[in-house]
Amino acid sequence: MKVTLENVHKSFPKGKSEKLEVLRDIDIQIKEGEFVSLLGPSGCGKSTILNLIAGLDKPNSGSVKINGELVKGPGTDRVVVFQQGGLFPWMNVLDNVTFGLRIKKMTRQEAEEKAMDALRLVHLGNYANNYPHELSGGMKQRVAIARALVMDPDVLLMDEPFAALDEQTRLILHQELQEIWAKTGKTILFITHNIREALTLSGRVLLMSTRPGQVKSSFTVKAARPRDPSDSVIVHLEKKIMGELEEEMEKVLKEEFGDDYRFKTSAIRDRDHSRMGDHI
Amino acid sequence: MIVIIAAWEIISKTDLFPAFMWPPLFIPNVPGGPTVFGTLINGLITGQILNATGVTLGRMLLGFVIAIVLGLTFGYLISRYKWIDDTLGFFVTALQSIPSIVWFPLAIVWFGLGFVSILFIVTIGATWTMTVNSSTGFKNVPSLYINAAKTLGSSGGHLVRNVILPASLPHIISGLRVAWAFAWRAVMAAELLGGSGGLGYLLNVGRSIQSMDLVLAIMIVIGVIGTIMDNQVFLRMERSVARKWGTRT
Ligand SMILES: Nc1ncnc2c1ncn2[C@@H]1O[C@H](COP(=O)(O)OP(=O)(O)OP(=O)(O)O)[C@@H](O)[C@H]1O
Ligand SMILES: [Mg+2]
Q1: A35, A89, A114, B89: least CB-packed within 10 angstroms?
Q2: Domain range for residue B4?
Q3: Higher confidence at residue B93 or residue A253?
Q4: pTM greater than 0.80 (yes/no)
């Protein structure tokens, strides 16, 4: 197993003595080369899971392992692509991409050659000398992906990397990411709250429940690649996941509006079918 | 500007004030008499003003550099450790509100009248603003940058030098700018009171020999240096950072 989470619990201090339980008894296993999506409503603890795997935070109990070894802190075997990219605005694109390589004591020339290869992989070979603010949102995310890929990590962790992008750009990046995955065979954990995105990209979708977050169910996506959204397997799964998510949404809404609230399932279902499950 | 100069010149030609109190700028009242610009040029040529400027700038620079190092260090500690923030951080805000020249009596007792006292006043004048600004800068570094850097293998000193410091550069530069302004005022006040060379000391000499042309000439030098530093050095730094980051409005 590449990534293993066993009985992971995580809570954050809230106020003086209270605790906010975010993750309860999480068990996740990801095989080498697998592309897994983590899907769940906002605030269910998806980013928290990713931070635990990245070593940016520690679980209260349970274990997080990479290749069978306990995660003790951040390491370059697991690189993160953050939702907001996280490019350094004071460095140009090339320096951003070589940042991690230079720490590895690679010579400047070697690092720059590798960085250029990675930039060409995401079709940004001509933007090496630009500063991040000169790029569009989609280009920034591609640089962030190049910066992660160039480290040649064992596991690529992606936290809603395309959430801030428009539909067109997102579709293009889905295409590119699938190509990259096919080419490099990396193990990828992809966080999203977009059902269609999860189904387009991944081999397995893990569905999380609302806080305290638990893995509610797991779906294997047995559809041919490149994925076609009208593929019957995808359509079927989309309906199924939507149904489960509605249950979760109902819980959230009940919590927020009180017990007498009746969630109108039909209201969501009938609205603009083509965008079904885009945003939950 | 021209109007002011002309008005000044005319007043100097009337008998409203004696010439030593209100000296002419360009045209001497009596042939060979003193003018502000004459004295200025002369002072630059003979080296009197030039030397004094050199002495002052030397002290300034030394004090300023010490203040920057101290300010960045304190600022980093304050941003890093909560208990230092609660103690030193609070203290610094109080210290910042004390004009640095107020330290002078104490400095004289501690270090004697002279170079060290002046240096002390300059340093203390710039340190606290630098501390406050840099700690604000460090505290406001988005955790996103730090997390991104950590997952790319950065930590410890590398993280501070390559991420935390550059990420807080906008705050640090505005800190430098204000700190310089404070130090500039401090060095003048200290030299006026504490003697031993420098532009402030020369001002005092000018006063004692009742040579207002010298005093005004020095004031012009002070103003010019202040403006150059602010506009040419710090404003440029701010602009170049803003251009790189794309935050220019
Ligand atoms: N450092 C922290 N301190 C306190 N509470 C936190 C912290 N980080 C996250 N939380 C809380 O934990 C919960 C889960 O947060 P998390 O960011 O993991 O959610 P998420 O599933 O990624 O949501 P989204 O889809 O909106 O990004 C939230 O309620 C959040 O307020
Ligand atoms: Mg999140």
Answers
A1: A89
A2: 1-33
A3: B93
A4: yes
